[in-house]
Specification:
Helix content is 68%, strand content 3%. It folds into two domains: 323 residues, no CATH class; 213 residues. Helix 1 runs antiparallel to helix 4, helix 2 runs parallel beside helix 4 and helix 9 runs antiparallel to helix 11. The chain is an all-alpha fold and 562 residues long.
């Protein structure tokens, strides 16, 4: 099942590469629809009541002498991210139908190869397979930006590649270090100990034998790779340029899925491999998230390029996502995972809308174009809808995840029951163990106000007011591109409609998403609680005995219940 989710887009990418330019678009749409259909089958067959366990498991030896296997598996979090990837695939093809007029075969072949690599990241159960897919995503995105981007595309592509590749190499060093530690453990410590392996479950057990100082170094290495990918402040500077220069489909995939490879890596590896260090350094990482939320929000306030504004907003939004994860409680983790999905829906849709506007006017400058509701009412309706979703309007998807992230941050404090809140008689509001607390939540909430201001100002300029068009604008003169009507076409509406439905459903009735996440989040919270109660030593030598105290992996649903 999972192998087919990787192979379908890869096979179609090869088919596009050897086909004619005329067939490229049709084959790309067929391939992404086939992958979406197979993903739907997997979602139906998945046992959501056991969402914390890896399902659809498959493994075969690849390089047995080095302990490397082709191992696949997916839990509930992986399945939700696979669903997001499959949904955005055909939407990106439809959104690029008329925008890509030169070398469409190259564009769509690399687009489907990118989808195959992203699927591999979410289903890999072997570290080397994960890393190969994680790194391979750089190549298609580099090609898409450098060949099909805007005027400064070469610099944007090079900056994107160098930043993310450098961080990923450092992360690989941290992951290989844990494999080396596992190879040196006694063979009777747990199954797989004392062997050279890259199995993720085995290495999670081995990581329990690290001291706090060792975990701190590994955490630093992992965050060097994953924080750049998110990106978190201060390693975010590559993102606005890459987003601004990328073609529309590249921006949608970058915001919708590629950035989530970083948050997924933080959850899957930084949290579970270095749990003690993750807890210890949570306040420091949370401060970086808060700085990113406020700093990026203030930068958005002064932007005139609407695409760059939405790009910087991603830095702020994903700061909320990681902040919820750092809360390490049920509300924060649920909000963080949902934020990955919701950000992909609403921000991906905003980049689509900006791309449709750029196809018609060839400018993204708010000083040159505005008041488009008078000429493009359908486009304006979608624009206002998705901006409201990004703002966090109650009833739309952004509110649910943003509220949970802030609430989880607010509650994550060991000492707040003895502070001013206790004297005010509010000590029973549900505080959970954690190193954050109300001040972190309050500062994060101020970022919501800033986001509402810059997004609504942007809507006021671009959508409402008197109609402004570039002096040389003529929507019937696009060179070799087919003429587009002033407002959205049926194809463009078809691309936006599923995203709008997703934002509305997750905003009004998020209960199915909560139910799907509950087993995984409950087991993660239980595991963190065990680690809190049994901290590792802070010395320089591994304490293998500690591994016997902790659970070998995240508890199952039944163990959490007991």
């Amino acid at each position: 099942m999972l192998a087919s989710l990787m192979l379908i887009p890869l096979v179609f990418a090869l088919a596009i590469a050897i086909s004619s330019e005329r067939l490229a678009r049709s084959l790309a749409l067929l391939g992404t629809l086939a992958a979406a259909a197979m993903t739907l089958v997997a979602l139906v067959q998945f046992e959501w009541a056991k969402g914390e366990t890896q399902q659809f498991l498959a493994s075969t030896a690849w390089l047995p002498a080095l302990g490397i296997n082709l191992s696949l598996g997916a839990d509930a979090i992986s399945m939700l991210l696979l669903a997001l990837t499959a949904l955005l695939g055909p939407i990106c093809v439809l959104g690029s139908w008329t925008a890509i007029t030169e070398r469409p075969r190259t564009f769509f072949a690399w687009l489907l190869a990118l989808q195959a690599a992203m699927v591999g990241v979410f289903v890999a159960r072997d570290l080397i397979l994960f890393y190969i897919c994680f790194e391979f995503t750089l190549i298609p995105m580099y090609v898409l930006i450098s060949l099909y981007g805007s005027t400064n595309r070469k610099r944007a592509a090079s900056t994107f590649f160098l930043y993310t590749f450098t961080g990923s190499v450092i992360a690989l060093a941290g992951l290989v270090y844990i494999a080396w530690i596992n190879a040196g453990l006694p063979a009777d410590a747990f199954p797989g100990a004392g062997t050279w392996t890259f199995d993720i479950d085995t290495l999670q057990k081995a990581a329990g034998s690290l001291t706090l100082s060792q975990q701190s170094l590994v955490l630093l290495a992992l965050m060097a790779g994953f924080a750049v990918k998110v990106p978190l402040f201060p390693v975010h500077t590559w993102l606005p340029l890459a987003h601004t220069e990328a073609p529309t489909a590249g921006s949608v995939i970058l915001a919708g899925v590629l950035l989530k490879l970083g948050t997924y890596g933080i959850y899957r590896f930084a949290l579970f491999f270095t749990t003690d260090a993750f807890i210890y350094y949570a306040p420091l990482m949370a401060v970086l998230c808060l700085v990113g939320i406020l700093y990026a929000g203030l930068i958005c306030w002064v932007q005139t390029d609407v695409k760059k504004l939405v790009a910087y907003s991603s830095v702020a939004h994903l700061g909320f996502c990681v902040l919820g994860m750092l809360a390490l409680n049920s509300a924060g983790l649920k909000g963080s995972i949902l934020y990955m999905i919701n950000h992909g829906l609403s921000t991906g849709a905003l980049f689509l809308l900006i791309g449709f506007m750029y196809e018609r006017y060839h400018t993204r400058n708010m000083k040159e174009v505005g008041g488009l509701a008078a000429k493009m009412p359908i486009w304006a309706t979608f624009m206002v809808f998705f901006v409201m979703a990004s703002v966090g309007l109650p009833g739309l998807n952004g509110f649910v995840s943003e509220f949970l992230c802030i609430m989880g941050t607010f509650q994550a404090s060991d000492g707040w029951k003895t502070g001013i809140f206790a004297s005010a008689g509010t000590s029973n509001l549900g505080a959970t163990p954690g190193n954050l607390g109300p001040w972190y939540g309050a500062i994060a909430a101020s970022g919501v106000i800033i986001a509402a201001m810059y997004l609504l100002i942007m809507v006021g300029k671009v959508v409402f007011g008197p109609l402004r068009e570039p002096p040389s604008h003529d929507h019937h003169d696009h060179g070799h591109a087919p003429a587009l009507p002033p407002d959205l076409t049926a194809r463009e509406i078809t691309a936006l409609a599923p995203l709008a439905v997703g934002c509305l459903v997750l905003g009004i009735y998020p209960a199915p998403a909560f139910d799907a996440l509950r087993p995984s989040i409950d087991s993660a919270v239980a595991y963190v609680q065990v680690v809190r109660e049994n901290p590792v030593p802070t010395g320089n030598e591994p304490a293998a005995a500690e591994a016997q105290v902790r659970p070998a992996s995240t508890p199952t649903t039944e163990e959490v219940a007991r």
